[in-house]
């Protein structure tokens, strides 16, 4: 005769010998309980739990809004840069597009590195003023 083992909430266990029919019914009830549990919980996974598992959700609406905002900002920045002097634009190109260090640029121009830093600060201020005018 098969035995059914039951564990109580207080941690004690009990085994009962049952007939084959009752044991088959017990197994069927356990399977049904598992299926019901799965049906109930499959839709209730928290977002945090899924993110901990590595599932990442992309907010396409926010991404497209951010892309539009970036494009608008880029256009405004390019307009502001176009209003700089040729020398100032050349300095920005060396720093941001060519990736040159301030020390290397200073050596090329036969000036000190703090002088290049000051020139960049002046350029940033001018761009900031030009951007504030467009807003």
Task: Summarize the SSE layout with pairings.
Layout: E1 3-7, E2 13-17, H1 20-41, H2 47-52, H3 60-82, H4 86-97, H5 102-109, H6 113-134
Antiparallel strand pairs: 1-2
Helix pairs in contact: 3-6, 5-6
Query: Hey, roughly how much beta strand do the residues contain?
Result: 5-15%
Q: Give the mean pLDDT.
A: 82
What is the chain-wise order of helices and strands? EEHHHHHH
Rg, Cα atoms, Å: 35 Å
**Envelope shape:** rod-shaped
Percent of residues in helices = 55-70%
Spans where pLDDT lies below 50 across 5 or more residues: none
Describe the model.
With 135 residues, this protein is mainly alpha-helical. 69% of the residues lie in helices and 7% in strands. Strands 1-2 form a two-stranded antiparallel sheet. A hairpin with a 5-residue loop joins strand 1 and strand 2 (13-17). It starts with a strand and ends with a helix. The mean pLDDT is 82.
What attributes characterize this protein structure?
135 residues; rod-shaped; two-stranded antiparallel ribbon; mainly alpha; 69% helix
Condensed summary:
This protein has 135 residues and is mostly helical. It is built from six helices and two strands, in the order E-E-H-H-H-H-H-H.
């Amino acid at each position: 005769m098969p035995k059914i083992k039951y564990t109580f909430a207080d941690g004690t266990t009990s085994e009962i010998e049952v007939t084959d029919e009752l044991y088959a019914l017990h197994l069927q009830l356990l399977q049904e309980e598992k299926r019901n549990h799965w049906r109930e919980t499959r839709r209730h996974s928290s977002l945090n739990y899924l993110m901990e598992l590595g599932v990442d959700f992309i907010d396409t609406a926010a991404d497209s809004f951010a892309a539009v905002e970036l494009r608008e900002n880029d256009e405004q920045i390019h307009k502001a840069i176009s209003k700089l002097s040729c020398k100032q634009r050349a300095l920005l190109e060396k720093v941001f597009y060519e990736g040159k260090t301030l020390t290397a640029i200073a050596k090329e121009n036969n000036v000190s590195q703090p002088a290049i830093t000051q020139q960049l600060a002046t350029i940033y201020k001018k761009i900031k003023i030009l951007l504030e005018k467009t807003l």
